[in-house]
C-alpha cells in the first residue's frame, strides 16, 4: 500500500490527525468530487434532470456494493444510514408473545432499544447470549439457546465501543443449522475487513457509508438475501417500494429496493459508490492488514503509558482502540486533543449498556485508525495525550 499516495488523495490528512474513523472517516478527493459534482449539476440543471443524466452511474452503486460483500445487485438497498437500514429489516419481522430475539452483550444501543420496544409491544423476549472468556459472543452458548422460540439471531459484528470482532461466521453456522433468520449489524466492519455475506451466512446485513467505507455522511445500505427474505414485506412502503396497481391494490417490488424510499441523496449515492469502488480496488485483505497492524501498534504504545487501561476485548481485534485513564476526565482530554487537531471520540455506557455496565465502565476514549494513519501520527497522539493529562492534572 502506497501510504504517501493514500494521504495525498485524502485532503483531510493535511489538516488533522484523524483517529475517529469509527465515527466518520476521511474521504478521498474522488469520493468528495463525486458528491460535489452532482450537487453542482443539480443546482445547474435541476435535481430530476441531474438524476436522469447520472442514471447509469447511480445504478452502478448496486453492483459495486454487491461485489464488495459478495452479494447480488438485486439484494442491495440504498438507505440513508445503518440504523434505518437495520430497522427496515428488523421492524419488517413479525414477533408473537414468547418469541425470542437472541443477541450479544456488546449489542449497539439503537438495536437494543428496538428490541425493547418490540418486546414491549409484542411480548417477544430478548435473550442476551453470554460472552466467552475473550469477550466475544459465546457461540456454544448461542447454540444451547436455540429452540422453537428462537425467531431471530441479531448481533453487531464489531461493536461501536471497542476493538472486538464477533465471530460472525460461526454465529451464521448456528443460524443456518437452526433455520433462524440472522441479522448482522456490520456498520463498523464493512470497509474495515473482508465481509462476505455467504461466508457469514446472514440473511440481512446493515452498513453505513461514513465509517470505514470512507463515504459521505447520510448514506448507508441494507443487504437482504434473496432466497430467505423475498417473502418479507417492508414495514414501510411508498411509491418506490410498491406500485399502486389499481384503486384498492398495490404490488411490492421483488428486489431489495423495496426497503428503500423514493427520495434519496443522489450525490451521496455517487460518493458512496466511489468510496466502495476504491475499497474494492485497494482490496479488503490489504485494508484489513494495515488497519489491524496500526491498531496493534497503537495498543502497544498505550500499554506502555502509566495510568492507561486498555479496554478492547476479543480474540481478534480491529482498528478501534479503546482505553480508560486512571484519573478519568476523558471528555476534557478529548477536547484538549481536538485543540491540537487530533480527533478521537468517547464511547459512553449509553452506546452499549449491557457491555459497559457489565464491565463497570462509564465511558472510554476511542481512537480508531484507518489505512491513511501513520505510526508517526500514533506517536504524536500518545505524546499529546500525555501532555493533555499533565496540563489537566
Ligand atoms: C455507528 C453504528 C451504528 C449506526 O450507524 P448510523 O449510520 O449512524 O445509523 C450502528 N451500529 C454500530 C455497531 C455502530 O457503530
Automatic annotation (TrEMBL):
One of its GO terms (molecular function) is transaminase activity. The keyword Iron does not apply. Keywords: Aminotransferase, Pyridoxal phosphate, Transferase. It comes from the Bacteria. InterPro entries: Aminotrans_V_dom, Aminotrans_V_PyrdxlP_BS, PyrdxlP-dep_Trfase, PyrdxlP-dep_Trfase_major, PyrdxlP-dep_Trfase_small. Coiled coil: none annotated. Its cofactor is pyridoxal 5'-phosphate. Residues 19-381 form the Aminotransferase class V domain. PROSITE patterns: AA_TRANSFER_CLASS_5 (PS00595). PANTHER family: BLR4730 PROTEIN (PTHR43586:SF24), CYSTEINE DESULFURASE (PTHR43586). Belongs to the class-V pyridoxal-phosphate-dependent aminotransferase family. This is Aminotransferase class V-fold PLP-dependent enzyme. It comes from Vineibacter terrae.
